[in-house]
Amino acid sequence: SMSGTLTIGSAIPILMGENIGTAITAILSSMGASKNAKRAALMHLYFCILKTSFFMVLFYLIDAIVHFSFMTELANPFIIAMIHSIFNLSAVIIMLPISEVLVQLAMKTLPVTPDELEDVPVCLFYTSDAADESGGVARRGPRSCTEKTPPRFLR
User: Fold this and answer.
1) Positive or negative CA dihedral for 42, 43, 45, 50?
2) Which of 47, 72, 97, 126 is the most buried (most CB within 10 A)?
3) Are 153 and 103 contacting, i.e. CB atoms less than 8 angstroms apart?
4) What stretch of H or E contains 64?
């Protein structure tokens, strides 16, 4: 874009491809890691694919109807950064309400195995909060549990 030969219409698909490409770093870093790390990397990949697909379909559908005049204009670094920022902020707003779907998708891709259930800490909550002398809140130790309560994502 610094050479002034790339149009906005050409820059948008490149930006979307780069966006999906960022997920490869999460996938690579999850190699040899725990299953939960792999699930987190998968959720990042799914997030990138879904938000890019949603944006591309919506954007080009609107463009087919309205015919954006800026598509043939030359792109500069500021415009590219602005498009990328608007895209990411919009994607978070749209995808946040359905984030549980990403968790379920990752759990279906890498299901929980019986050996993982043995490693799940059962009691992740505290009995109560007690105020310390400084007025802050001090935590008491974890409560001991007699029955196993699986985390929400395992139910």
Assistant:
1) positive
2) 47
3) yes
4) helix 35-66
Which of 29, 59, 33 minimizes the C-alpha distance to 44? 29
Cβ atoms of 7 and 75 closer than 8 Å? yes
Q: Are 86 and 19 in contact (CB under 8 A)?
A: no
Structure token digits, residue 90 = 């919009």
42, two tokens: 């998968």
pTM of structure: 0.68
- Quote the mean pLDDT of the chain: 80
- Three-class SS of 14-42: HHHHHHHHCHHHHHHHHCCCCHHHHHHHH
**Token pair for residue 55?**
């944006």
φ, ψ for residue 65 (rounded to 5)? -85, -45
CB atoms within 10 A of CB 42: 22
Give 75-97 pLDDT, tens digit per residue.
988 999 999 999 999 999 988 88
Question: CA–CA separation, 62 vs 77, rounded Å?
Answer: 24
Residues in the chain: 155
Asked whether the beta carbons of 8 and 71 are under 8 A apart, the reply is yes
